[in-house]
Design brief:
Keywords: DNA-binding, Transcription, Transcription regulation. With about 280 residues, this protein is of the alpha+beta class. About 45% of the residues lie in helices and about 25% in strands. The protein contains 9 helices and 13 strands. The longest helix has 26 residues.
């Protein structure tokens, strides 16, 4: 599957449709610099990307990488209709074998400029569960291409991102493994109950897994233990309260789940390099 880190978001460049007669082949291309998304509505495309075979029957899709050579493996055996869409991203992307749980991270050190980063995980190829919806979006994209305006370009990007999200959601269930599902569930529980005292025992009882297994899953997914994850999340909530409210610092420590004020100050200093009072004065 492909992993896209955003922002910046992947962006739509152009799209179209083609119909191949029996015996026709897709053009041979090398390192075209854009992702090529092929969505077949009738017949079948038999593609190859540097030795890897991609068979795309009706109701299926496949992505071709921007940095590799691709061609038809064999000609079409029947009349074949397909949509094609070119896109690229200015952000990082990679081809991975497993999905990581969703986690939003601040992309800037200034608390008033907290740009959240997230990732798309999209299977390289697969079957469309709602093909008519996808076909409709592609027809709308092609229609918008005929309207050269800023408003049209804006709408194109919105439709394209809806399409990527649809492909991610359709392929997400098959791509997840048990370890990462447990990590995601644990993280969601910690975020929901961060104001409360939480122990490994309680986490284990809520998720119905041994605490050591939950910790192993979170280490694999997030690179930290459940309590480390919880502390980081509490600190981020405390930052927002320090900036946006006039609450006493002691009350903020209690509200964000820290047992004592000295412990809050110690944790805050460890994660931010400054004390809560100094942090508030700097950004207020």
């Amino acid at each position: 599957m492909f992993r896209f880190t955003s922002p910046p978001m992947p962006h739509h460049i152009t799209c179209g449709e083609d119909t191949y007669a029996p015996g026709a082949r897709h053009p041979e291309r090398a390192s075209i610099g854009v992702f090529d998304l092929l969505i077949v509505t009738k017949g079948c495309l038999y593609m190859e990307e540097e030795g890897m075979a991609l068979t795309i029957p009706a109701g299926h899709y496949a992505f071709l990488r921007p940095d590799r050579y691709h061609r038809s493996r064999i000609p079409c055996t029947e009349e074949t209709h397909f949509f094609w869409l070119h896109f690229q991203t200015l952000g990082s992307w990679s081809e991975v074998t497993e999905q990581v749980p969703f986690t939003s991270q601040a992309g800037h050190e200034l608390p008033f400029m907290q740009i959240e980063t997230f990732v798309y995980h999209i299977p390289r190829n697969g079957e469309l569960r709602t093909p008519e919806t996808v076909y409709s979006w592609l027809r709308q994209l092609m229609a918008l291409r005929q309207e050269p305006s800023a408003a049209s370009s804006f709408r194109q990007q919105g439709l394209f991102l809806d399409l990527l999200l649809q492909l991610q959601e359709e392929g997400g269930a098959a791509a997840r493994d048990a370890h990462l599902a447990v990590a995601d569930e644990a993280a969601a529980f910690l975020r929901l109950h961060y104001r409360e005292p939480i122990s490994y025992k309680e986490l284990s009882e809520q998720l119905h897994f041994h605490a050591n297994y939950i910790a192993l899953c979170m280490k694999r997914a997030f690179g930290c233990t459940p309590l480390e994850y919880l502390t980081r999340y509490r600190i981020e909530q405390a930052k927002q309260l320090l900036i946006h409210t006039n609450e006493p610092i002691g009350a903020i420590a209690e509200e964000t789940g820290f047992i004592t004020f000295p412990y809050f100050v110690r944790c805050f200093g460890k994660h931010t390099g400054t004390r809560p009072k100094a942090f508030r004065q700097r950004y207020r």
